[in-house]
Specification:
single chain; 4 helices; de novo design (two linked rop proteins); elongated; mainly alpha
Length: 120
């Protein structure tokens, strides 16, 4: 997957997260979770975009690590919505899966960059 496609994918993830947050019921717990989720979910796309402008391999690894953390946090909040029975697992399973796929791709990219940087 190239940079343009991954940018698109992270942006779609962020938009889907926003849709989930907008659909949450007006409850205190749901509101707190929505605020956390919207911040981390939107951050995935924004920080990946920043990583694409990295000035060095080391800078890119650092920025991609932030994207990985934000994606993992987003998955955490999605799982909390399910565990607290605010939204059904059936409804969130595809988005949780997409978050986990994004995390896996980021981990693989970071490992590849680290290997390449140690060979230089």
């Amino acid at each position: 997957m190239d940079e343009t496609e991954f940018k698109r994918r992270t942006r779609e993830f962020a938009k889907r997260v926003a849709g989930v947050c907008d659909a949450l019921p007006a409850q205190r717990t749901a509101d707190v979770l929505a605020r956390q989720l919207i911040r981390s979910g939107m951050s995935v796309a924004a920080n990946y975009r920043a990583a694409c402008r990295a000035r060095s391999t080391r800078d890119m690894i650092s920025k991609l690590s932030i994207v990985e953390e934000e994606a993992d946090e987003s998955v955490h909040w999605l799982e909390m919505l399910v565990e607290l029975e605010i939204i059904t697992e059936k409804r969130l399973a595809p988005l949780i899966d997409e978050g986990n796929q994004i995390i896996a791709m980021l981990v693989a990219s970071i490992k590849t960059l680290r290997r390449k940087s140690t060979k230089s």
